[in-house]
Amino acid sequence: MAADDPRPLTLRDVSEASGVSEMTVSRVLRNRGDVSQATREKVLEAAKTLGYVPNKIAGALASSRVNLVAVIIPSLRNMVFPEVLSGVSAVLEETELQPVVGVTDYLPEKEERVLYEMLSWRPSGVIIAGLEHTDASRAMLKASGIPVVEIMDTDGTPIDCAVGISHRRAGREMARAILKQGYRRIGFMGTKMPLDHRARKRFEGFTEALAKEGIEVIDQEFYSGGSALAKGREMTKAMLEREPELDFLYYSNDMIAAGGLFELLAQGIDIPGQIGLAGFNGVELLDGLPRRLATMDACRAEIGRKAAEIIASRVDNPAVPVEKIVELTPKIDYGDTLKRR
Amino acid sequence: MAADDPRPLTLRDVSEASGVSEMTVSRVLRNRGDVSQATREKVLEAAKTLGYVPNKIAGALASSRVNLVAVIIPSLRNMVFPEVLSGVSAVLEETELQPVVGVTDYLPEKEERVLYEMLSWRPSGVIIAGLEHTDASRAMLKASGIPVVEIMDTDGTPIDCAVGISHRRAGREMARAILKQGYRRIGFMGTKMPLDHRARKRFEGFTEALAKEGIEVIDQEFYSGGSALAKGREMTKAMLEREPELDFLYYSNDMIAAGGLFELLAQGIDIPGQIGLAGFNGVELLDGLPRRLATMDACRAEIGRKAAEIIASRVDNPAVPVEKIVELTPKIDYGDTLKRR
DNA sequence: GTGAAAGCGCTAACAT
DNA sequence: ATGTTAGCGCTTTCAC
């Protein structure tokens, strides 16, 4: 413990120290209403020397305004989400609003708990990853009466509105690009699906577009846990042993794709001549790899920014009309591992 | 917006719907005091069908208890911090406490602002990265009267208590290990220092231990911004052009070290025979690299866990005595890039 | 086992 | 430009 006095300072303390009414002290501290320069200075002086920190709990209760935006994401260990957060923060920093992060570990029940906790603080808005939620979660969000933006995914029906990309379409487009380069014997590696709806949708779009050309994925493998880089490498090795004839490897994220890249390089395989590869996300982290991985930008920061803008505008004016779904369009980055010369 | 009714539900609504007094409803919802099974069920039923979510703002004001722990870190984009957070969350999940994250971007003034915001919510404790803070921040923390754990670093004087490693010592030990392997012409690459005290201390410890053996770093370079992997690669290339005689490269983090590794591999340099390298952190991310990088574990999750335990125990009982400084001891992981055969 | 009254620290609304 | 009053939605305390 650091202090002797167990009682935190209140407005009253500042009021007494400055000889100004509580109300006026409150006005000064919030920059609201007209206060004379002289009083303002007295108050600020007193607050500063006392070390007064306002009690937002009381303020929020009295004003029934809480300048918090709940941001609910599956994980912080996947760089995608911190990048979305950056976008959110960048926009909210221009406003009174503050993001508060909750992590669900991809578990629907945990999402429900986290959401309940967050809503009990009566935030001004919610930004939540994905369109899949428990019934209870959807009910809470609907009942909350605050703006809700579901992010990252647009393949589904939003509760309120959504900003993201279509992962099904992303999968389809990657499939088309791969076929166009003449690859035909394709393997897929990704995260275990039930947990990750967006990865699942990409895979579905991918296989669907292949099927349209009469092609099926030759081999597939799903992992969970562990270092993505190492897993990507292991899975690739195993898959090549099972299916030496593969000519393309599609990965559900860039990290495992990078692992695969290392394995192919170690085996001295010609990339992208003999085997091509592609990942997903466009994480800048990978800029310095020996080869530039083919990937697809998931528009992470942009999604965060747009979502925050929607919340901010609706907090200012709940009546503003908003598009139900804002679909951003990711582009394929061919890098050095997809385009055959 | 999702709902029609702009007024969120209150205890009174549940009270009326269930025909039980507000007080008893409150007791049921908090599992406090004796309530008959029959009443309890009535209340739970009513709360559920209404979709009542308690208002923690009001609850916190009335009880002057807030089960929030402020966790203040420089960034979420450096994997180190999400890993610390995992440790914190893991421990706090066993308690009533909840972590709330604030990000400072390594800026002391932003730290001050974030801290002020967080303290205004009257959290039960603070976990904050580093021992360097503005005077105002230190004053706020002292005046808060709540437990404060400064983490990641033990080279300095904590406000209340600290859990971390000595980065000076880490730097010294790496220097000794490098010298012991016979390396003598050493280069250093790292982040721009003023922003990152822990990297600075490692560098200081490093040069100090070299100096003791009459050795100086031959070349050094500092970067900021951009992809760490790419930067590591660029800096390494540039440094080798300036100083072809280098026989060891020490990096302030694993990400730039990995970039350096790629550059050395691309140049066909014998590692660790001709040139050795080492990074810092032990990020599991790097498990799948072509060579296992020498590094030093920063005990991230353990630091998070320990810090959370201290907060939790002090919230339960403010009187429990605590060590001022808990210093964990990182070990060198030699990998394949430091130990000459 | 249940209820009534008071008040947490602030701000909205209305004085002056 | 400043002060007064009431009350935000809960929990504490005390009564029954």
Task: Give structural notes.
2 copies of one chain form a homodimer. With 341 residues, chain A is α/β, with parallel strands linked by helices. The first copy, chain A, has helices at residues 11-18, 22-30, 37-50, 56-63, 80-92, 108-119, 135-144, 167-180, 197-212, 228-242, 254-266, 300-316; strands spanning 68-73, 98-103, 125-129, 148-153, 161-165, 186-191, 219-223, 248-251, 276-278, 295-296, 325-327, 332-333. Chain A folds into 3 domains: 11-54, lambda repressor-like DNA-binding domains (434 Repressor (Amino-terminal Domain)); 68-166 and 300-328, 3-Layer(aba) Sandwich (Rossmann fold), CATH 3.40.50; 167-298, Rossmann fold (3-Layer(aba) Sandwich), CATH 3.40.50.2300. In chain A, the strands form 3 sheets. Chain A has a 6-stranded parallel beta sheet with strand order 2-1-3-4-5-11. A 4-stranded parallel beta sheet of chain A has the order 7-6-8-9, covered by helices on one side. Chain A has a two-stranded antiparallel ribbon with strand order 10-12. In chain A, helix 10 crosses helix 11 (254-266). The relative contact order of chain A is 0.12. The interface between A and B is large, with 71 and 71 residues. Chain B binds a DNA duplex (16 and 16 nucleotides) through helix 2 and helix 4.
Order of helices and strands of chain A: HHHHEHEHEHEEHEHEHEHEEHEE
Q: What would the average pLDDT of chain A be, to the nearest integer?
A: 94
Level-2 CATH architecture of the largest domain in chain A? 3-Layer(aba) Sandwich
The CATH topology of the largest domain in chain A: Rossmann fold
- Number of DSSP strand runs of chain A: 12
The CATH homologous superfamily of the largest domain in chain A is called Response regulator
Strand order of the largest sheet of chain A: 2-1-3-4-5-11
Q: Under the CATH scheme, which class of the largest domain in chain A?
A: Alpha Beta
In quaternary terms, these chains amount to: homodimer
* Major sheet characteristics of chain A: 6 strands, parallel
Largest interface by residue count?
A: A-B, 71 and 71 residues
Tally of helical segments of chain A: 12
Radius of gyration of chain A over all CA atoms, rounded: 26 Å
Please state the overall shape of chain A, judged from the principal axes of the Cα atoms.
elongated
How much helical structure, as a percent, in the residues of chain A?
40-55%
Domain unit count of chain A = 3
